[in-house]
Amino acid sequence: VEVEARNYLKLDEGKVRCNVCPHRCVLTDGSTGFCGTRINRGGKLYTLIYGEVSAISIDPIEKKPLFHFWPGSGTLSISSVGCSFKCPWCQNWYISQARAGEYPTTYMPPRAIVSYAKRYEAPSISYTYNEPIIWYEYLLDVAALAKKEGLMNVLVSNGYMTPETAEEFSKYVDAANVDIKSWREEVYKKYCKAELEPVLEACKIMKEKGVHVELTYLIIPSINDDLNDIESFCRWVAEELGEYTPLHFSKFYPHYKMTQLPPTPVELIEKALNVARSAGLKYVYSGNVPGHDGENTRCPSCGALVIKRFGFEILEYNLTEDGMCKSCGYGPIVRGKHIKSRRYFFL
Ligand code: SF4
Ligand code: SF4
């Protein structure tokens, strides 16, 4: 449904400026923003996707990916349509590149989302699949209600938010996985039609406000696979977000407009893992390579295998109830408890 947007400014001549993401679109009467989900009607800004849900399912939290937050738990995952980026490799392009009304959605009030999470015993709600930041008004309403009812909120995002958006979300969001598309502004500009710097700023704000932050770097051959870039990115993570920030290097598979590129060679992911470890990062992972040793968590203090995984499954769990290493007592290595009973499905 259509509701008046939050976080916008009325300008001269009936124009408005949306301040949700760093595009800060200026909209004349009748025009929509870059994300295709916000419209100026008579000098007021409206969101067209409030409560419009394109997908809802229970996913393992490891699929977000979050490896250090309530391991093994199911998370109620919801999405809408639209995105603030135009990545030509997007896996979910059919929803992310749709404008409001171009892909079927179902209206669900915030209360319904919270009830589903409770009914299916998911301790958290994840805002995911398309870009959740542009779902600003609905996300804040669902997240506030969820928090009030004892549930947690998880943001799976490209991180493209203004500082004020990052601060507002940080009041409700418990954990975030942010995609870093490249360490080069020109890659963000050329492919995503966006910028890197605000993403890094948003990560810092969320971290400072106590949000559990993990990062994902999809390695795309010839686009962002320079190991020197990856090294300086990892140094930035260690210095600005901390060396215990989990970082996932994901394998790329040809998708959408990038079908001419090969999948990422596993050796390249292994090189990136080594570069990240040398830069001081303690928790680095391979993604989309089921069965790879890079899926496991080792204790940074004694080196014991503390979580053995296969894909999104936990095979062995050697941490105490409060997340400490069972071998040497170091920790906490994860935030939250290990939840073994879980059910995953589309609703
Ligand atoms: S949320 Fe959409 S309308 Fe608002 S600034 Fe970002 S792209 Fe523009
Ligand atoms: S930011 Fe994510 S959802 Fe948006 S286009 Fe890029 S990959 Fe797709």
Helix content: 10-25%
Distance from N terminus to C terminus (CA atoms, Å) equals 21 Å
Shape: globular
Helix and strand string, N-terminal first? EEEEEEEEEHEHEHEHEHHEHEHEEEEE
DSSP E strands, number = 20
Round the mean pLDDT to the nearest integer and report it.
97
Q: Please compute the radius of gyration using only Cα atoms.
A: 20 Å
Q: Report the structural category.
A: alpha/beta
- Ranges with pLDDT <50 over ≥5 residues? none
Q: How large is the count of helical segments?
A: 8
The strand line-up of the biggest sheet is 16-15-14-13-12-11-9-8-20
Biggest sheet layout: 9 strands, mixed
Proportion of beta-strand residues: 15-25%
> Are any ligands bound, and if so which?
iron/sulfur cluster
